[in-house]
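User: I'll paste a sequence; please echo it back and then give the predicted structure.

Assistant: Echoing your sequence first, then the prediction.
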Amino acid sequence: MTQTPGPRPLSDEALSQLLGAQQFGTLATVKRNGRPHLTTMLYSWDPEARVVRFSTTADRVKVRQLRNDPKAALHVQGGNVWSFAVAEGEAEVSDVTTVPGDEVGRELLGIVPEGARPEDEDAFLEQLVAERRVVVRLKVDRLYGTALDIDG
């Protein structure tokens, strides 16, 4: 009987690269009853600051949960089902963007992936205000994850 390889832990650098290579992940927040709340999110990873940024609206459940308990984690799938990274930390929620082009609005614009930048930036910034958008900043204090090297 041949022994199959087990998962190997990824280095901090490999985990950071995996986070930077993806755009979507599953954000876990904590409900009042202590159970996790999971939601798929578009995100932006800043490896130097070790901050994951998300755009959402002020009325979302995750915003209330993070204001109540800032502990959160982001799970990101790697290149195959056996590879993943998790970024854990405490999140903070910005103020609502209230004036097109204010500091929060500019930060939200920075979250948009390069290839998806709006042609009409002013209209986009106005839309962010109308939607009552906020930035969630997950300050990462722990990265972990694994990869399993298998063929196929």
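The longest helix spans residues 12-21. The first strand starts at residue 8 and ends at 9.
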